[in-house]
Automatic annotation (TrEMBL):
Chain ranges of the ABC transporter domain: 41-262
Family named by the database record: Belongs to the ABC transporter superfamily.
Pfam families on file: ABC_tran
Protein name in UniProt: Teichoic acid transport system ATP-binding protein
Gene3D superfamilies reported for this sequence: P-loop containing nucleotide triphosphate hydrolases (3.40.50.300)
GO molecular function: ABC-type transporter activity; ATP binding; ATP hydrolysis activity
Length: 269
């Protein structure tokens, strides 16, 4: 999925993304059973639906310079995907601002946005059109993207609904990393496909990183993050707990995973 930045005028030239005091909350309906009877009972008593607020991201500020490759780590539910969806413009901030300078390509949920009735090849073309590529650019890229996905014989021209999850992931990854975006957001994409495809994906990521694009990667594959990223941030319960060299951050995070306790300097957070 591709989106154009909306208000990058205020951003210093060297920055691709500025996140300023960002908070994102979800409202969840906590009613045990959603039935018509319950709704009528509630209405007759003049009661409202009971909701609970989950603060998924809390007061996060972060500047990401053009060309940096940032890894995001954190336990399940830490707010990583919420942050990525918000940077992609899919999820509006509850408060604070995100300013993006450049064309974003996202791989946040594999294959979201694909038209299942169309073939893989047609979806690649649609992806190109959505990315604002010209017809000739699309023509020259389609074959190489299809080749990158490397599906079993004939599948690239079959409807996507006939694909296995793995085939789906391959095409989605191939589209996202070959659209030459300014900013690439990847959520757990490094784990798509079998071992051979993982290796190919990783090599393509290396190339993209070397091309000085701005890349944000959410992954539990810490050694891959250490190799690809020049900076890592650790999210914990919606807050940015630490930011720094990937090796340092992933080491601290790994200790936390093994011991189950935060380093003492973070306990107040
Ligand atoms: N659509 C939603 N509605 C309500 N709550 C949500 C929704 N999506 C996420 N949450 C909640 O927001 C918090 C952050 O979730 P998020 O998916 O961003 O975490 P994450 O770090 O990406 O986790 P994981 O590693 O498990 O994918 C969690 O408490 C989660 O339950």
């Amino acid at each position: 999925m591709l989106s154009e930045s909306k208000s990058a005028k205020s951003l210093p030239d060297n920055l691709a993304i500025r996140i300023n005091d960002l908070s994102i909350s979800y409202k969840i309906n906590v009613e045990s059973k959603k039935t018509l009877k319950n709704a009528i009972m509630r209405a007759s008593k003049g009661e409202r639906v009971r909701t609970r607020t989950v603060e998924a991201v809390k007061n996060l500020s972060l500047d990401i310079p053009h060309g940096s490759v940032v890894g995001i780590v954190g336990a399940n539910g830490a707010g990583k995907s919420t942050l990525m969806r918000s940077i992609a413009g899919i999820l509006p901030p509850t408060s604070g601002q995100i300013t993006v300078n450049g064309r974003i390509s996202t791989l946040l949920a594999l294959g979201v946005g694909f038209n299942k009735a169309l073939s893989g090849r047609d979806n690649i073309i649609l992806g190109g059109l959505a990315a604002g590529m010209s017809k000739s650019e699309i023509q020259s890229q389609t074959d190489s993207i299809a080749e990158f996905a490397d599906l079993p014989e004939g599948f690239i021209d079959m409807p996507v609904r006939t694909y296995s999850n793995g085939m789906y992931s391959r095409v989605a990854f191939a589209v996202a990393v070959n659209m030459t975006p300014d900013i690439l957001l990847l959520d757990e994409a490094l784990s798509a496909g079998d071992a051979a495809f993982k290796e190919k994906s990783f090599n393509r990521m290396r190339e993209l990183c070397a091309e000085a694009r701005t890349i944000l990667i959410v992954s539990h594959a810490l050694s891959s993050l250490n190799e690809l990223c020049d900076r890592a941030i650790w999210l914990h319960k919606g807050k940015m707990l630490a930011s720094g060299k990937p090796e340092d951050i992933t080491e601290q995070y790994l200790k936390f995973l093994n011991v189950g306790e935060l380093p003492s300097s973070y306990e107040d957070l």
